[in-house]
Write a structure and sequence with these properties.
Strands 3-2-1-4-5-6-7 form a seven-stranded parallel β-sheet, sandwiched between helices. The longest helix has 29 residues. Helix 1 packs across helix 8. It is about 45% helix and about 15% strand. The N and C termini lie far apart (about 50 Å). It has one domain: NAD(P)-binding Rossmann-like Domain (Rossmann fold, 3-Layer(aba) Sandwich), CATH 3.40.50.720. By secondary structure, it is of the alpha/beta class. The protein binds beta-D-glucopyranose. Beta-D-glucopyranose binds next to loops.
């Protein structure tokens, strides 16, 4: 077990990549706070299921990561339940497809509030606890290949992910003296609800897969494996890095 008795917080953990990370962390011996968004009973049930049955303690906490008071309450509840926090995974994220010329302020702010501001506040609240504890910690961002490569129709999403990459690199420097490792995972096309619209459309699926050198979508568990590494002692000397989990997608260049 690579995370025995560590305490982890995973945002957006009621589905997709976050759920897989929460479950894998619990399987590796961590006590996990699984976060889900407010007002969704199915999300609450899924969040609880994610960490059940591993012999570790799990709590499910409802919080909107784009609201500071929610985030501070969630971190306080984690510390109250487990006595500390060692790992925070900023996974919660949304995307809205909208051609740039039709972009509304409301959609722009919603995407940036959840993806970027949310990741900042969770990191800050968790890092403050880690500094107080004095035993280091791990901050992990689940970014996207679109922190680096364009995605026409998703300008707000790409802007949020590009900014996460720079935030991660800055925090890696600022928090190094506190022995807090800060890293990014940049998933490519992973089979999760966020791209249900592609998964359910055979033609779109064919096009998407043709862009992936590995020839298939990734599985959430394949992202979780890298998260375990970054959360573990094996990553002691790893900070300020982006780990692509994309089947080679970022290397794909279409010439003709
Ligand atoms: C997006 C997906 C997209 C994938 C690969 C992810 O960050 O959320 O919608 O399929 O990148 O382009």
């Amino acid at each position: 077990m690579r995370l025995k008795d560590r305490v982890a917080l995973v945002t957006g953990a009621s589905s997709g990549i976050g759920e897989a990370i929460a479950a894998r962390f619990a399987a590796e011996g961590a006590h996990v706070c699984v976060n889900y968004r407010p007002g969704s009973p199915p999300d609450e049930a899924a969040a609880k299921r994610a960490v059940e049955g591993f012999g570790t303690r799990g709590i499910a906490v409802e919080a909107d990561v784009s609201r500071r008071e929610d985030v501070e309450r969630m971190v306080a509840e984690t510390v109250a339940a487990f006595g500390r926090i060692d790992i925070a995974v900023n996974n919660a994220g949304i995307e809205i497809k909208r051609p740039f010329l039709e972009q509304t302020d409301e959609e722009w702010h919603r995407v940036l509030d959840v993806n970027l501001y949310g990741a900042m506040v969770v990191s800050q609240a968790a890092a403050r606890e880690m500094v107080k504890q004095g035993t280091g910690g791990k901050l992990i961002f689940v970014s996207s290949v679109h922190e680096d490569i364009p995605f026409p129709g998703y300008t707000s999403y790409c802007a949020s992910k590009g900014a996460i990459r720079m935030m991660m690199r800055n925090l890696a420097m600022e928090l190094a003296p506190h022995r807090i490792n800060v890293n990014d995972i940049a998933p490519g096309a992973i089979a999760t609800p966020i791209n249900r619209y592609v998964l359910e459309d055979p033609e779109a699926m064919k096009n998407a897969v043709s862009e992936i050198p590995w020839g298939r979508f990734g599985r959430p568990e394949e992202v979780a494996g890298v998260a375990v590494f970054l959360a573990s002692d094996d990553a002691e000397y790893v900070t300020g890095s982006t780990y692509y989990v994309d089947g080679g997608l970022t290397q794909q260049v279409t010439l003709y």
